Amino acid sequence: AKSVYLLAIETSCDETSAAVIENGTTIRSNVVSSQIETHRRFGGVVPEIASRQHVETITWILQEALDQAGLTMEDMSAVAVTQGPGLVGSLLVGVIAAKSLACSLELPLIGVHHIAGHIYANQLVHKLEYPLVSLVVSGGHTELIYMESEGSFRIIGQTRDDAAGEAYDKIARALKLPYPGGPHIDRLAQEADGEIKMPRAWLENSYDFSFSGLKSAVLNVLNQSRMRGEEPVAAHVAKGFQSSVVEVLVEKAGRAVKEYGAKQLLLAGGVAANRGLREALTKRCEELGVPLLMPPMDLCSDNAAMIGAAAFLKWNRGDITGLDFKAEPVLSL
Ligand code: KG4
Ligand code: ZN
User: Fold this and answer.
1) Is the CB of 138 under 6 A from ligand 1?
2) Which co-factors does it depend on (predicted)?
3) What pTM was estimated for this model as a whole?
4) 14 lines ligand 1 (CB under 6 A)
5) Is the CB of 295 under 6 A from ligand 1?
6) pLDDT tens digit string along 270-304?
7) What is the number of the ligand 1 atom nearest to the C-alpha of 118?
8) 100 and 155: one domain?
9) Could you tell me the residue range of the domain that residue 93 belongs to?
């Protein structure tokens, strides 16, 4: 049978990415151009600059994705793009590129929710079995999602303030670590020979999360030490912070797996690259006797392959978005 090739585009934040996915699971190419270097000196993503850089990069990235796959636009069966949520100026660049290609080549166009993309990154390397519970942890999201079947998403818990990745980045900034700080905190926590104990926000009887209290607690420790002219050991701060985040995430995810009778626990999003989290979840899932599915490191952070994987499922169901949709900075699953 003839292969189905999807050309996928992701530009929701500060990564310009294009990928070619064959039959939903084979990555023929997945080109990611990160703007981290550009934004680093501002300590975070500057939306106007991100948007402009997407414009400068998108054409080249698309060509590169096709070249690396050894294919041309004529081989594509459909075009997929992140519709939202994200930075509107960034999303627009991907959406307009996707619409132009789909329109001129008369190809079906599929809009994908960014979080569905993160979740279905797992589809590229694992076989999903429902019902399952997904823990999505990224720079903009912290969600526990119950999925009774493919394409069905029920948010059972979410953050009431900061996203996990956002908290990581803010603490890293206070420790004068480069942006994005998540990987640096993770590394320090792994190396630490001690830990400054931090509080845990359990929010009893709820699957919701809160990280702003923890963030304040960490900043207080730093400020008080600095007022005394001392600098706490960064690794001890990092370890204390990470232990708190990981313990709460693991506890709530484990509880949800039991309560909902999930056949699998699925981890997704940029923070899914966190080694402490991966280790602790692996241990908990072994205790529960439930498989833990995680994307490989390079598919945790934003990339177009995950958008292609999610789009293929829609394509298979005949769920084609068409040309008549907008980039949506706020979009529910
Ligand atoms: O999913 P992603 O690439 O972008 C969003 O959709 O938000 O996630 C980026 C976030 C950043 O906050 C970054 O600091 C965090 O993921 N991150 C990590 C690690 N690697 C990336 N956080 C903790 N530990 C890591 N190893
Ligand atoms: Zn993301």
Assistant:
1) yes
2) Fe(2+)
3) 0.96
4) no
5) no
6) 999 999 999 999 999 999 999 999 999 999 999 99
7) 1
8) no
9) 5-120+300-316
